[in-house]
Design goal:
The protein is globular, with a radius of gyration of 26 Å. Helix 8 crosses helix 12. The strands form three sheets. It has a seven-stranded mixed beta sheet, sandwiched between helices. It has three domains: 142 residues, D-Maltodextrin-Binding Protein, domain 2 (3-Layer(aba) Sandwich); 102 residues, 3-Layer(aba) Sandwich (D-Maltodextrin-Binding Protein, domain 2), CATH 3.40.190; 78 residues, Alpha-Beta Plaits. The protein has 343 residues and is of the alpha+beta class.
């Protein structure tokens, strides 16, 4: 009997919603009867078995090999990963859940703008016999980051709740917390320090090292390879239209010149993968055709120029998957990484 491939997905929140949407758009729709169901299947892919759990538990279960793959936040993984290296990061950024773990201080601290200022401030606290207090949910990451800056005299205040109020309530002097836009920090009269980004984070895909060795050995047509290829193609297509511009001409030379001008116009507007060639319409009249990948905004901006150059029609179609021969597939990178680290 072929062993199922267990994928752990966050049980709720934006990480869960993003994971399910990502899998669905990649052709791996998760069948889940209700939010209270903690096991599910994937339509058309019976080998995959989905389990729902907390992001921190996903790291633990992938670590011990009960789950082969898992989707969680890079911040969660980096904070809870142990030193056994029994898990690997397959894809560090799945394209959603982007945020950063930052050092934030009260806006009233006008003389503290950079991490170097924080180094001096902690020294001042120590000379005055005071303990510098830092509220965070990421003790391991903070200790490692502060160590790089030579900051050793401080006390960590652990909390599972909102940290933004801690400085104003006197619970802590500063906080180290996640932010995406910075709005919440600003609303609570806090600001980020320059060079104070502890970690850039996003939803990531992790895997159990030994399990992945076996799954990678199934080759580039195996279930894991096909899943990773689908995720690659989906990510590469984000925000792109497949543009086709066509027109008829009076002669071969004119056709080449017009197509060249259209291709140059698209390139000037930021289009990528621009190709051109000859075509014929239903009445056997010679014409030209230019294709490209372009954003919605770029297409609208150059539309009038395309018609002025002689285009008869311009069509932009949403892309589902884009594969570029020059891009190294995630599966290939994973296979090489596992091969380079046989331990």
């Amino acid at each position: 009997m072929i062993e199922p491939i267990r994928i752990a997905v966050p049980s709720k929140g934006h990480l869960c919603d993003g994971a399910l949407e990502l899998l669905k758009n990649s052709g791996y729709r998760v069948r889940r009867a209700s939010d209270r169901q903690y096991e599910a299947t994937i339509s058309g892919h019976p080998r995959f078995h989905v389990v729902f759990m907390r992001p921190t538990d996903i790291v633990d279960q992938v670590q011990v090999g009960r789950c082969h793959l898992g989707i969680t936040g890079m911040d969660v993984y980096a904070e809870h990963i142990d030193e056994s290296a029994s898990s690997v990061v397959v894809d560090s950024d799945l394209g959603y859940g982007g945020c950063r773990l930052v050092v934030a201080v009260p806006e009233s601290w006008v003389d503290v703008d950079h991490m170097l200022d924080l180094v001096e401030l902690t020294h001042d606290f120590r000379e005055q016999g005071r303990m510098f207090r830092v509220s965070t949910k990421y003790a391991h990451l903070v200790r490692a980051y502060f160590r790089k800056w030579g900051i050793y005299h401080y006390q960590l205040i652990a909390s599972d709740g909102a940290l933004e109020l801690h400085p104003s309530l006197g619970i802590a002097d500063i906080i180290v917390d996640l932010t995406s836009s910075g709005t919440t920090l600003k609303d609570n009269r806090l600001r980020e320090l320059e060079s104070g980004i502890v970690l850039d984070s996003a939803a990531c895909l992790i895997g159990h090292r030994e399990s992945l060795r076996s799954l990678v050995a199934e080759g580039d047509q195996g279930p894991v390879a096909l899943l990773l290829d689908a995720l690659d193609g989906l990510r590469a297509s984000e925000g792109s239209l497949h543009l086709e511009v066509v027109g008829t001409t009076t002669g071969a030379e004119d056709s080449q010149d017009t197509a060249s001008r259209v291709a140059a116009c698209l390139g000037d507007h930021g289009a990528q993968h621009v190709f051109r060639g000859a075509v014929w319409d239903s009445d056997s009249r010679a014409g030209w055709r230019v294709t490209a990948l372009i954003t919605n905004r770029q297409f609208v901006q150059c539309k009038r120029r395309l018609f002025a150059l002689g285009a008869s029609r311009a069509v932009g179609l949403p892309t589902r998957f884009v594969f570029d021969r020059s891009s190294v597939p995630t599966f290939d990178r994973l296979a090489e990484a596992l091969k380079a680290d046989p331990a």
